[in-house]
């Protein structure tokens, strides 16, 4: 059994304000997404230009926070929300959902693309590549904060989390999710994005890939105590939410390749869509 590294969840304090590592992980994820967006916007198959990356990050952050909180309230805290609707606004009490954040980001990207006359599919493809490392950093924040730990186990790398009232040796499932949903998914998307592909295919691969990897990781993660297991007595709420995500991802990939069967079709559509958007902007400025 491994010893849990006793790291203070509070990174530092500014008077009465405590800054947690989890919050810093969110900021680091946004910073990485901004850096990657700046690098990728120079490519001809990316419709977003350098001067638009800052706004893209702002819209993404808004979608993550609002969607993540509302998603958690609906997917995991329905009874609590019904008893105390104002709990939704008390974000400092914790509670964020990836699946809710995903919906929030999709809505935000649609808003962003429409307001700037950019192709929605091309913007979503870029957002898909920018997301996994933020998820990885978020899981590290969960690990440091002793949240979302794993199920009891006797594997040699099991850990006893000091905050666990039962003091059981558990899977460090946050690190599994860091490796699978974060690092591995990013490497897969990075490899895929370097090849000719139709628009929407990268976003589809993200949905299907994340859904599959999260489904696997959930087998090692302790389900929420107030929810437990669902279908067949072994599926978690997170796994059920991943099923439509996998189906959507596969649909998007099949639809994208049938819609643009020619290799490199994504570049033609994305560039033409971006050029059209810039032309409309120039006319508006004129």
From TrEMBL:
Group of enzyme by EC: transferase
Residues that, per the record, bind a 1,2-diacyl-sn-glycero-3-phospho-(1'-sn-glycerol): 139
GO MF annotation terms: phosphatidylglycerol-prolipoprotein diacylglyceryl transferase activity
EC number assigned by the record: 2.5.1.145
InterPro entries, alphabetized: Lgt (IPR001640)
Positions of region (Disordered): 264-286
Keyword entries, A-Z: Cell membrane, Lipoprotein, Membrane, Transferase, Transmembrane, Transmembrane helix
UniProt subcellular location: Cell membrane
Transmembrane segments: 20-36, 56-76, 96-113, 120-140, 175-192, 199-217, 237-257
Pathway in which the depicted protein is active: Protein modification; lipoprotein biosynthesis (diacylglyceryl transfer)
Main location: membrane
Example GO BP: lipoprotein biosynthetic process
Bilayer topology term: Multi-pass membrane protein
Pfam families in the record: LGT
GO CC annotations on file: plasma membrane
NCBIfam families referenced in this protein's UniProt entry, alphabetically: lgt
The family this protein is said to belong to: Belongs to the Lgt family.
Function, as annotated: Catalyzes the transfer of the diacylglyceryl group from phosphatidylglycerol to the sulfhydryl group of the N-terminal cysteine of a prolipoprotein, the first step in the formation of mature lipoproteins.
PANTHER family: PHOSPHATIDYLGLYCEROL--PROLIPOPROTEIN DIACYLGLYCERYL TRANSFERASE, PROLIPOPROTEIN DIACYLGLYCERYL TRANSFERASE
UniProt name for this protein: Phosphatidylglycerol--prolipoprotein diacylglyceryl transferase
Organism of this sequence: Kineobactrum salinum
Lineage: Bacteria, Pseudomonadati, Pseudomonadota, Gammaproteobacteria, Cellvibrionales
